[in-house]
Every structure is written in C-alpha cells, then in structure tokens.
C-alpha cells in the first residue's frame, strides 16, 4: 500500500467563499443561467435543509414525504458537456453564489483526476477514498440542526477516468476499483447527511457508469455557444477596442461551423485562443484592426467535438 496522501498533495488550492474573484468569474459566464440556478439551489439545500421545510410549511403543509424524497437525494451533481463550455469555471465559482445566498462560508476542495491517479495500481482508489474522507471530516465539523454553519464542495474535475462503464469489458480492474470508491464516497456523504456536496465534471456522460449516473441529483448539460452567445462574448471583448457591430458580425460568422464542419468555436476557443491571438498579433506596434482579426479567425479551427460514445 502507498501512504495516504496529505491534504496538500491531494487537492489543488482550496478556496473559501464568499470570494470577490469567484463572483466576477461567475458573472462572466454566458448562457449558463439555468445551470447556475439549478446548481446553487441544490447546493443551498444541502447546507440548509430547513429552508425547504420552511418553504413547504408555507406552500404545501403536510408534504413530509415529498420533502424526504428531495432531501434524501445523494449529494452529487454532474456537469457534462463539451470541452471549454464552462463546467470547471462554474464548479469553481458557484460556491460564491451559495455562500452569499445562505450567508455561510463554503469551502471548495478541488480534485482533478486528469493529472493524478495515473501511477501505481491502487492510486485512483486511494485518492478518491482519501478525498471523501477529508470532505466528510470537514463537513462533519459544520453540521448543525436545520442549518449548518458552513458547507463543503468536493469537486471531482476531469472525471473521465471514472466514466467508463463498469459493464464495459475493456475496463481495467483498477478503474473499476476507482468507480467503486467514488460510489462508496457518495453513499457515505448521503448517509451521514453532512453539509457536503460533490460536483463531478465529465466530457463523456454517455460512458459514465450507470451506478454513478443513477446517484446524481441532477445532470447539467453544457453546450458550445450559438451565434447569439458568440456575438455576446465577442462584443464584450472587442467593442471596447473600437470594433463596430458589423465588424464583430464577421467574427461571429468566422467562429461558427464552417466548410461543412459540425461545430463552431467553443467558449474557450474564443476566449483563450482567438482573442489572445488577435491581441498578440497587434502587440507591440499596432492597434487591433478588424481586418486582421478576421484573417486570424477564418483559418483557425474549432476544437473538435468530443466523441462521447458509450
Ligand atoms: N459559458 C461561458 N461563458 C463565457 N466564457 C466561457 C464559458 N465557458 C467557458 N468559457 C471560457 O473558457 C474557459 C475554459 O472553460 P472551462 O470551464 O475550463 O471549460 P470546461 O467545460 O472544459 O471545464 C473559461 O475560463 C472561460 O474563459
Ligand atoms: Mg474543465
């Protein structure tokens, strides 16, 4: 056996909300209002179950069984969808909305499976088990009657390593053990009813183990931006630089599906590839011009659509 990973080895930087930086990033996300609302409601209830009881007393007295079925859902929300569509960004910033809404501190424990758990056999299992141990221990300290004094979010990002179905014949023994550790962790949090929730991000919902899927209180889907959403991002970034609506419209088109392609740019294609290229092209001698911007955008290829086969 390997030694148990320490808190610092296990998690990327822990974050505590409310946090003004998270709030700014959350506000910048486009086209995810519905996901935002649903996620903050679910997380809010986990840290403040009495809120639902108050609501029921007011609107549906005698609805105890109804409440029970809502409150007993496993504390897991799955964010699924194409790369660069805002899953990580939302998961890393929603804690701020919940903290403000419930007026308590929320702590995020971010665990990325992409960069970890690729080493020795047993590592993935050990990582997940330890991560759930920490989340459970932290959340237990915050437990209160009706309303907790704080809340914990465990973020399992880039969880594709976990998403191969247990039923798949090729699935490696070790992966299966990882899935089992994940399920055990979710079930432990659910049973102890501590103020903790798990957000899992994956590009491959269809390949996700049915036992994991079944446990999700909600599955939120993220998509590439349509033309109106691309326009919004581009306007926001390029209008202040002096580009006109007509010029921006050219970029909206150039970032859409072209030449018989199925998909257009992702949000991150626009914010992390296109815009920086436009800026660096002009820097340090010229100012940004729409003609050059278009010449840069046209040949640029969107990130290929993620092949999500089960
Ligand atoms: N819905 C969105 N609105 C605005 N920008 C976005 C959106 N989604 C992604 N982005 C941009 O793309 C970057 C990468 O997004 P990220 O959340 O990491 O994607 P993923 O879905 O792969 O986790 C963000 O930092 C942001 O700049
Ligand atoms: Mg991500």
Order of helices and strands: HEHHHHEHEHEHEHEHHHH
Major sheet summary line: 6 strands, mixed
Strand content is 5-15%
Let me know the CATH homologous superfamily of the largest domain. P-loop containing nucleotide triphosphate hydrolases
Supply the number of helical segments. Answer: 13
CA-based shape: globular
Query: What are the segments in which pLDDT stays under 50 over at least 5 consecutive residues?
Result: none
Q: What is the class of the largest domain in the CATH system?
A: Alpha Beta
Gap from first CA to last CA: 33 Å
Ions and ligands: adenosine-5'-diphosphate, magnesium ion
- Using only C-alpha atoms, the radius of gyration works out to 22 Å
Indicate the mean pLDDT.
89
How many individual β-strands? 6
Which CATH architecture of the largest domain would you pick?
3-Layer(aba) Sandwich
Instruction: Trace the largest sheet across and list its strands.
Output: 1-3-4-5-2-6
Quickly give the structural class. alpha/beta
Give the domain tally: 2
Determine the fraction of residues in helical runs and give it as a percent range: 40-55%
CATH topology description of the largest domain: Rossmann fold
Pfam families: AAA
GO molecular function: ATP binding; ATP hydrolysis activity; microtubule severing ATPase activity
Catalytic activity: n ATP + n H2O + a microtubule = n ADP + n phosphate + (n+1) alpha/beta tubulin heterodimers
Keywords: ATP-binding, Nucleotide-binding
């Amino acid at each position: 056996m390997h030694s148990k990973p320490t808190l610092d080895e296990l998690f990327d930087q822990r974050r505590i909300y409310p946090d003004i930086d998270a709030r700014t990033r959350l506000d910048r996300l486009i086209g995810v209002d519905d996901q935002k609302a649903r996620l903050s409601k679910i997380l809010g209830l986990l840290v403040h179950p009495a809120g639902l009881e108050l609501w029921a007393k007011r609107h549906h007295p005698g609805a105890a069984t109804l409440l029970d079925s809502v409150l007993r859902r496993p504390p897991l929300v799955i964010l699924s969808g194409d790369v660069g569509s805002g899953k990580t960004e939302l998961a890393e910033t929603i804690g701020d909305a919940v903290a403000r809404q419930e007026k308590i501190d929320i702590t995020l424990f971010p665990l990325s499976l992409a960069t970890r758990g690729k080493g020795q056999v047993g590592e993935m299992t050990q990582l997940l088990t330890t991560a759930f141990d920490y989340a459970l221990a932290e959340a237990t300290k915050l437990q209160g009657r009706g309303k907790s004094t704080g809340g914990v979010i465990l973020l399992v990002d880039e969880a594709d390593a976990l998403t191969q179905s247990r039923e798949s014949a090729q699935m490696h023994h070790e992966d299966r053990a990882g899935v089992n550790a994940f399920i055990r962790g979710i079930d432990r949090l659910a049973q102890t009813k501590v103020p903790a929730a798990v957000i899992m991000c994956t590009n491959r919902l269809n390949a996700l183990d049915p036992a994991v899927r079944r446990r999700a209180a909600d599955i939120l889907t993220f998509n590439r931006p349509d033309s109106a959403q691309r326009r919004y991002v581009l306007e926001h970034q390029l209008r202040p630089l002096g580009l006109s609506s007509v010029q921006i419209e050219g970029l909206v088109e150039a970032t859409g599906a072209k030449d018989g392609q199925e998909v257009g740019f992702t949000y991150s294609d626009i914010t992390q590839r296109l815009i920086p290229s436009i800026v660096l092209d002009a820097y340090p001698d010229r100012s940004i011009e729409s003609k050059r911007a278009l010449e840069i955008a046209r040949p640029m290829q969107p990130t290929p659509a993620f092949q999500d086969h089960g």
